Amino acid sequence: MSTTTRARHVFGRIRWYVREFTGESAYDRYVDHTRSCDPDADVMSRRAFERSRTDAREADPREGFRCC
Q: What pTM did the predictor assign?
């Protein structure tokens, strides 16, 4: 494996980890799941998806008290 190929592979793995850790890949999973279950279903925009996710997280009492 050449140095460039190896570096590209390592960068790809780091990128995947960061996206999973930050939750950025959640929207991609949502779109894939929605389209696989019903190809004609309306898919929320990324903004609407993030708003829905935030609202659900804040409404969940297991997440703890949030004052602000």
A: 0.67
